[in-house]
Amino acid sequence: MTTNKTLAKPTSIPSSTGEAFHYYDTHPTEDDLIGESAAQSQLIFYLLKVLEWRYRADEWFVVSNLNIYHERRRHEIPLVPDVVVFKGVVVPNAANRQLRSWRLYEPDRPAPQLAFEISSQETWREDLEHKPAAYAALGVREYYAYEPNDPPYWPNGDRRLRGWWLESGLMIERQPDARGWIWSAELDSWLVADGALLRLHDRDGRMRLTEGEAQRAAKETAWAKLRALGIDPASLT
To answer: What CATH number belongs to 13-206?
Structure first.
């Protein structure tokens, strides 16, 4: 007997959230004052592009540095993930300047499924020692920390990637496989440390690409086919 499964319809969230109630929506947090290193900025930008392109058809909301609040308290200090993924959530106009934060206490505001923190000299201890429990309290299902710096700030710098999964309300650290790869069920991807960059690979080990990388790869494939037919691609331009 076969069973027809109905896919859950994505939740459409208005991009305007009204008045800026929370103090840190209009004032800098401690993380804001620290700023980002070049290594952090490069990796955050790269992850955003990979995730946006890979999951574009699913219309996931993938965003960087969005204040996330758990309670309606004016001076609550928000969690501000370097990259966060909301599956099944559509924000029609994410560029709307009223979208200052994500308030979990409001209707139709689910917790993100996954969060990334990219470590720096100032943040690495917080990323490893306190953020797992903080994200567990929000209901985040998977949390990953990455060390892009060279030399690394993490102790025992032979590992750049660490990951935790939510189990019974607690973040339990996941151990990598023999290659050092960690499987993400939420992203249906392997997470793979590659120096300053954190890569995503599919189940068969193929690297997931950004839109630009995918277009270049398609162009190279098309040119290779033309050359195999004895046609010089340059002659067609």
So the answer is: 3.90.1570
